[in-house]
Amino acid sequence: MTDTLRTSETFSDHLLGASIPSRDTRLRLVRLDRTLDEILAAHDYPPAIRNLLAEALVVAALVGALIDEDDEESAEGEGGGQMTMQAQTEAGIVKLLVCDFRQGAVRGYADFDAEALAKLGANPSLPALFGKGYLAITFDVPKRGGRYQGIVPLEGESLAAACESYFLQSQQLPTLVRVAVKTEGERTLAAGLLAQHLPDGEVGRERLHVRVSHPHWEHVETMAGSIRHDELLDEALPLEALVWRLFHEEDEVRVFQGKPLTRGCRCSVEHYESLIRRFSQEDRAEMRNEAGDILVDCAFCSRIFTIDA
User: Fold this and answer.
1) What's the CA gap between 228 and 245, in Å, rounded?
2) Which of 86, 149, 168, 263 has the maximal Cβ count within 10 Å?
3) Is the pLDDT score of 208 beyond 50?
4) Whole-number Å distance between alpha carbons of 23 and 106
5) What is the pLDDT of residue 250?
6) pLDDT of 247-256, one tens digit each?
């Protein structure tokens, strides 16, 4: 296996990318440790919601990492590419689950019915948590011409499975996603792998999106699908070593480090002041409390900001 652009070993809170040119495949891997704990610490989530949000944050990082690096960059730090993943339900126990990724910053939040959740037991299934719902994934990439969204039913036994359905139905890209989560005391660790087969655009050859059972993809899917949860969660095992274990027999595998990952809540007094200025004077007057201030509650970081109206 040949690797390129590799500068050091990758363990946690850093994206790793790879590609297998001969099989038209790209890979993304991530292991969330400190960043995940910082996000989860904003709310006192029960174990089932904690694990669900951890899985969602890994999926968000893997999918967000597919945005090209040059699309994420901008001189002002604004306007770069962003991916938002949102799961909503009709009368489900989890009312809303939302995560987003922008330039290596991830954040997430879950709103749920605590009383209904308590009746489900220790390890409720995804259908039990969501009931009838849908998954929406939105890419906002100005350098590619703007915003596009795909929506699929929230089906299957995991968010990873729903994500696979999104790529197959919305973009006709065969995709495999594997996620592992474990909690020990107050600490949660989560990791994941995404493998995706890209369209073959060469003139005169059949395009992949009309032939999902491509032999190259079948091979990659089998090998990537063999990864074990304990391998993903092994903090002593570099992510590069996982790629080697799975694909060391390939003629060439290109490995490169992506962005470091951080907790990405972008709330601040200045940010909310700029948003509130967009409202009319009448609307701002209705927002004020008795003291004349506007209080903004950020669900992502569980902080209340006082804005001088």
Assistant:
1) 11
2) 263
3) no
4) 30
5) 95
6) 999 999 999 9
Amino acid code (one letter) for 117: L
CA distance readout (Å), 234 to 105, 169, 193, 194, 245: 23, 33, 13, 17, 14
Closest CA to 112 of 63, 181, 32, 44: 44
* CB atoms near residue 36 (< 10 Å): 28
Residue indicated by tokens 């968010």: 159
What 8-state DSSP symbol labels residue 143? Answer: G
Sign of CA dihedral 203, 165, 212, 224: positive
235 and 33 in contact (C-beta within 8 Å)? Answer: yes
Measured CA to CA, the distance from residue 10 to residue 32 in angstroms comes to 11
Write out pLDDT tens, residues 25-73.
999 999 999 999 999 999 999 999 999 999 999 999 999 999 854 444 4
At residue 40's C-alpha, the angle toward residues 256 and 260, to 5°, is 20
Ordered alpha helix ranges (H), the chain: 34-40, 47-64, 69-72, 114-118, 126-130, 159-170, 215-224, 229-232, 239-247, 269-276, 281-287
CA 235 to the chain's CA centroid: 20
- 14 neighbors 265 (Cβ within 8 angstroms): no
Angle, vertex CA 118, rays to CA 117 and CA 124, nearest 5: 55
pLDDT at 75: 36
Report the b/e string of 102-112 with b at 16+ CB within 10 A. Answer: bbbbbbbbbeb
